[in-house]
Design goal:
Blueprint: E1 3-8, E2 18-23, E3 30-31, E4 36-41, E5 46-50, E6 55-60, E7 67-68, E8 73-79, H1 85-88, H2 91-97, H3 104-107, H4 114-120, H5 134-141, H6 157-165, H7 184-195, H8 202-206, H9 236-251, E9 254-262, H10 264-276, H11 286-300, E10 306-309, E11 312-315, E12 321-323, E13 325-327, E14 330-332, E15 335-336, H12 344-359, E16 373-377, E17 396-400, E18 404-409, E19 414-427, H13 433-448
Parallel strand pairs: 12-16, 16-17
Antiparallel strand pairs: 1-8, 2-4, 2-7, 3-6, 4-5, 6-8, 9-19, 10-11, 12-15, 13-14, 17-19, 18-19
This protein binds oxidized coenzyme A.
């Protein structure tokens, strides 16, 4: 005997008028008890509404975009208790049936978040919402995807629809909007990266094939619960630099190799030069020597002066060196063009001018383009070693910290030597560890005896 059941939105806590963002079943579908029927998304949480019993979907009463509250009728279900689901269900339905019904609290580990807090009040417990059904994931990849480790993504219905139209799994996208919300630009950036070969097919993650990051959503913390706070927007430079740094950190397999260069003689020479210089000449800086020494090392080890382009390595025959400048608005990297054709004094003059323009926010975009290799010098500030992030599409970056007098064994005794800590981060897809150690050793040798630059 079959009967028609009106399925209504259950108690969803304090939420009302919550938008339906996805209807997960169609009329005629067989569903099992607890199978998700549709997804709702409030500004705090996403949740799936499960079917209270097994049966066949007779009619769907809501469409994506409709707003529902507790008690709204969403589906008419013909209960067919005796119907053997396995015989009736299509493969897609089976896959959808396999969609895990974990409460969010179970699917997210780590510190509790607002999202978890919100979810915890919901009854029935919300699902790891809005993951595409297994059927969708299968369609994308051809591989059925266990989703027990999937977590909720935040995106508006229009962004979800946009992503669906393009065949993108929003679960794979990191949101850059408020509270980690996924924007249309995030979807576009994801597709762009995927097209450039930087990302795996979206299903590879779900299928456990080893690609992608499959990260938990960003923790949503109500900081005001813990004390007074003030929200300030990130500067434009920070936003742009942050997105670039993030991409570079995630997409490039970094290794950092450290070395100490004995700059005792070089520093004495630098000080002497500055004493001799007339007042109009720019101060000769350690940075200018480092740029010149880096050019010598790039010439000696040309694989450091390359960029990856698919399966090709582009070897550059020019030497444009970028240097990081710390400005009130964030980090920028102006570029000294043709550093191989310039003297240390000229490089010092140019770095000073570019750094000044950077601090005044007056750098033109062409003054930040075309770099082959970058130097990030924290020497004037302090530190010993650090891990600079490679400035893609370059393949290496040199981090420099503060030089310090150290006791160095000369074979007979310890001598006080001025040692400069160097940290070379390199793209391990392009450069091997031994090559990096050789590059560093060569660079240190040039800095120890700057006459080697002429070789
Ligand atoms: N060890 C010891 N002292 C150093 C040094 C080093 N490696 N490098 C510079 N100094 C000293 C200089 O001798 C100078 O001292 P005096 O004022 O007594 O002459 C002082 O530090 C300032 O140095 P500088 O005027 O030569 O400037 P700089 O070349 O060190 O720095 C610039 C220029 C643009 C690199 C710097 O201003 C800057 O912005 N650095 C920060 C870069 C950054 O943020 N990197 C992190 C990016 S994250 O990867």
């Amino acid at each position: 005997m079959s009967q028609i059941i009106e399925i209504k939105v259950p108690d969803i806590g304090d939420y009302a008028d919550v938008p339906v963002i996805e209807v997960l079943v169609s009329p005629g579908d067989m569903v099992e008890e607890e199978q998700s029927l549709l997804s709702l998304e409030s500004d705090k949480a996403t949740m799936d509404i499960p079917s209270p019993s097994a049966g066949r979907v007779k009619e769907i009463k809501v469409k994506p975009g409709a707003r529902v509250s507790q008690g709204t009728v969403i589906v008419l279900l013909e209960s067919v208790a005796e119907a053997p689901l396995a015989e009736h269900a299509s493969p897609a339905q089976e896959a959808a049936t396999n969609r895990p019904q974990l409460p969010v609290a179970q699917s997210i580990v780590g510190a509790p978040t607002e999202q978890q807090g919100a979810s915890a009040n919901l009854s029935p417990p919300p699902r790891p919402a809005l993951a595409p059904t297994s059927a969708e994931a299968t369609a994308l990849t051809g591989v059925a995807s266990p989703q027990a480790d999937r977590t909720a993504s935040h995106a508006s219905p229009s962004v979800r629809q946009f992503a669906r139209e393009l065949g993108v799994d929003v679960q794979q996208i990191s949101g850059s909007g408020p509270k980690g919300r996924i924007t249309q630009d995030d979807v576009r950036a994801y597709i762009k990266a995927a097209l450039q070969g930087g990302l795996p097919a979206s299903g590879a993650v779900a299928s456990g094939a080893g690609g992608g990051l499959n990260l938990l959503p960003w923790p949503q913390v109500a900081f005001t619960k813990f004390g007074p706070v003030e929200a300030k927007p990130l500067s434009r430079i920070k936003k742009i630099a942050g997105a670039n740094l993030h991409r570079n950190w995630v997409m490039i397999p970094h290794v950092t190799s450290n070395e100490d260069a004995d700059i005792t003689e070089l520093e004495a020479f630098r000080v002497k030069l500055n004493q001799e210089n007339n007042k109009t000449a720019a101060k000769v800086t350690m940075l200018a020597f480092l740029i010149k020494a880096s050019v010598a090392a790039l010439k000696q080890y040309p694989s450091f002066n390359t960029s990856l382009d698919g399966d090709n390595l582009i070897y550059k025959q020019y030497y444009h060196i970028g240097f990081a400048v710390d400005t009130p608005n964030g980090l920028v990297v102006p570029v000294i063009r043709d550093a191989d054709q310039k003297g240390v004094q000229e490089i010092a003059q140019e770095t000073a001018e570019l750094a000044q323009l950077a601090r005044e926010g007056k750098l033109k975009s062409d003054q930040m383009q075309g770099g082959c290799f970058s130097i990030s010098s924290l020497g004037g500030i302090g530190g010993t070693y650090f891990t600079p992030i490679i400035n893609a599409p370059e393949v290496a970056i040199l981090g420099v910290c503060r030089s310090a007098l150290s006791p160095v064994w000369d074979g007979q005794q310890f001598m006080p030597r001025l040692m400069l800590p160097l940290s070379l981060s390199y793209d391990h897809r392009v450069i091997d560890g031994a090559e990096a150690a050789r590059f560093n050793a060569y660079l240190a040798a040039v800095l120890a005896d700057f006459r080697r630059v002429t070789l």
